[in-house]
Amino acid sequence: APDNIVYNLAAVNLDISNNRLPDAQQRVDRMLNLYPDNYPLNQAKVDVLLKQSKAPEALKSLEILLKSRPDDPDIWNQVADTRGLSGNTIGLHQARAEYFALMGDFKQAIQQLEFAKRRANNNFQLASRIDARQQEIIAQERAVKDMMN
Q1: In this predicted model, what pLDDT tens digit does every residue of 120-149 receive, in sequence order?
Q2: Distance (Å, rounded) from C-alpha 100 to C-alpha 12?
Q3: DSSP letters along 71-111, please?
Q4: Which DSSP state fits 69?
Q5: pLDDT at 1
Q6: Is residue 63 over pLDDT 80?
Q7: This protein's superkingdom (predicted)?
């Protein structure tokens, strides 16, 4: 089963558990050459990169995953954690906000964007984009409340 995805993902997990990270990386890369759009393989790539303390590379892979799965709260949660590891606190709060919005916790989402906006107060463009997203989430929350009444 050399090209079987499930078999190789199990092998990658074993490699990670046994701290054979270069082997895990090599296996994931080889499988992604065969199946570039496979979500579990792409997720495994992120896991291997994070285990190797390669947060910036993991973040690039996560951004690619977000393009195909923008409404996946698990990816947004991982983006938030990885941005935090990379020292991008504003980005961490933005990603957390997306996670909370997708989970339906609009209050937390709005609060996370408030945190991001405070940190971005010396960057007008970024603060404006954060504010615009905050207004969108407030509108989403209002729409959900209206549907429930």
Answers
A1: 989 999 999 999 999 999 999 999 999 998
A2: 31
A3: T-HHHHHHHHHHHHHTT-HHHHHHHHHHHHHHHT-HHHHHH
A4: -
A5: 72
A6: yes
A7: Eukaryota
Instruction: Check if the beta carbon of residue 50 is closer than 8 Å to that of residue 79.
Output: no
Interval 89-121: pLDDT, tens: 999 999 999 999 999 999 999 999 999 999 998
Cα–Cα distance, 79 to 82 (Å, whole number):
5
Six-digit token string for 21: 């990270």
Class at the top of the CATH hierarchy for domain 72-148: mainly alpha
What is the C-alpha to C-alpha distance for residues 66 and 78, in angstroms, rounded to an integer? 11
Q: For residues 124 and 108, what is the distance between their CA atoms, to the nearest angstrom?
A: 23
Residue 142 CB coordination number (10 Å) = 11
Counted residue by residue, the chain has a size of: 149
Summarize pLDDT for 83-96 with one digit per residue, the tens. 999 999 999 999 99
Q: Which long-range contacts (CB under 8 A, 24 or more apart) does 6-11 make?
A: 8/41, 9/40, 9/41, 9/44
| Region of residue 123 (left: phi > 0; alpha: psi -120 to 50; beta: else) | beta
CB proximity list for 46: less than 8 A, separation 6 or greater: 58, 61, 62, 65, 78, 82
